[in-house]
User: Which sequence fits this backbone?
């Protein structure tokens, strides 16, 4: 069973100690703290890909994460998300969003304006845990972020939440972007599968960059799947 976490090891004092190490300027120490926090927080932690059944996933959400939500055990992570060093803020944002603690709900949105690209990247990824189309209005401006990874992550998150309002901005993002930006835009547009972006995806099949052509092919496959689902 995945839920073999020793509850006595998961204490506020233990989390606080590890978060303090996570804030260390010593990179190996910070990495060790991150790994130890992973072991404590995530029941399915382990090397390599882990296959989790639907029942095990339900148990993790209800028993393990359910017990952590709202708990004082997570207070050090909440503090780290607000005022830790960049690596600590990014880690805490991700952990709290995955656990689903309501006290951290607004933190990823606030972190979209963080001065650290590492934190902004974590924030865009965290928002994938939500399926609220209204988040699009917060993510669309991030398509202009100066950091390539951040804006590409924002594009893919827009695809995950499936907001049709994001289609015109994603098309504009594709048109002004480099190959990686174009691929991210196509990935997102494929997930949204709005007919307005079909001409763009078709024309991208002729792009000079292989990664763009590959993303276009995948996007068109997504359009086809959606069409079949609607008609079949």
Assistant:
């Amino acid at each position: 069973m995945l839920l073999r976490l020793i509850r006595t090891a998961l204490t506020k004092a233990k989390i606080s100690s590890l978060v303090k190490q996570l804030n260390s300027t010593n990179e190996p120490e910070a990495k060790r703290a991150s790994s130890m926090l992973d072991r404590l927080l995530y029941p399915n932690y382990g090397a390599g890909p882990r296959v989790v059944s639907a029942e095990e996933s339900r148990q993790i959400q209800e028993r393990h994460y359910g017990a952590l939500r709202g708990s004082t055990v997570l207070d050090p992570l909440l503090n780290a998300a607000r005022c830790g060093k960049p690596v600590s803020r990014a880690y805490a944002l991700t952990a709290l969003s995955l656990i689903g603690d309501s006290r951290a709900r607004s933190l990823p949105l606030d972190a979209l304006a963080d001065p650290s690209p590492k934190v902004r990247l974590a924030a865009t990824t965290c928002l994938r845990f939500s399926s609220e189309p209204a988040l699009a209005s917060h993510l669309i401006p991030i398509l202009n972020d100066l950091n390539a990874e951040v804006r590409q992550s924002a594009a893919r998150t827009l695809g995950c939440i499936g907001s049709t309002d994001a289609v015109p901005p994603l098309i504009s993002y594709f048109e002004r972007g480099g190959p990686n930006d174009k691929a991210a835009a196509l990935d997102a547009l494929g997930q949204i599968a709005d007919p307005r972006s079909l001409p763009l995806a078709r024309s991208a099949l002729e792009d000079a960059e292989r990664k763009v052509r590959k993303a276009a092919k995948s996007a068109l496959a997504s359009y086809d799947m959606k069409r079949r689902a609607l008609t079949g």
